[in-house]
Amino acid sequence: RPFEEWLHDTIEYGFVEWLIRTFVHDVRETRNQTSMGTLYDAIPDIDRIELRGGVTLGEEAEEESVSFDVVLRDRMGQPLVVTDLNDSREPATEPMLESLIRNATPVAESNEKLSAAFFVTSSYYEPGALETAEEATGGGLLKRSKNKSFVKLSRKEGYHLCLVETREGEFHVSVPEL
Question: Could you give the number of structural domains in the chain?
């Protein structure tokens, strides 16, 4: 089977294509350009996609790096979006979400251009995973942030945490509600 044909059938390729083609329009149609602004504004800057990519934390040679299933970068190589995937029929679990947040947060702290961390599952999210996302984003009734599903690092800094489900090539945002 030719490489390009194989690539187009992967969940990674489908996710990236959905993000840059469909998600942007969904955000615009639901008038969430402001509440999803950090991510919405970063999407046009995506220049390259790295599968099974690593992101270095800091500039020194001995700095550690963290890995993601997909890393979308700008032309200077800065990470804009990091993504972990669950391509099994098993539901996405709390430890899976905790791992994404544990890896994405130091990336956002050392790369101010990181706009979002996505978790994509071809199954569904266990309640514990949804609770983990809500806790990380300060969700709940008394939330005061103008940004949807936003992991705050400081008063102005942070990144969007988005949970996506995919079935038969279609992608749907579970968190946040658009």
Answer: 1
Summarised one tens digit per residue, pLDDT across range 69-115 is: 999 999 999 999 999 999 999 999 999 999 999 999 999 998 889 99
Residue 119 tokens read as 């978790």
Residue ranges in 11-144 assigned as alpha helix (H): 11-18, 24-29, 37-42, 94-110, 127-136
151 bridge partner residues:
159
Q: How far is CA 113 from CA 34, 92, 108, 143, 157, in A?
A: 17, 27, 7, 24, 10
Q: Which domain holds residue 54?
A: 3-175
The closest alpha carbon to 116, from 165, 175, 54, belongs to 175
Contact status, residue 116 vs residue 158, Cβ threshold 8 Å: no
**Global pTM?**
0.91
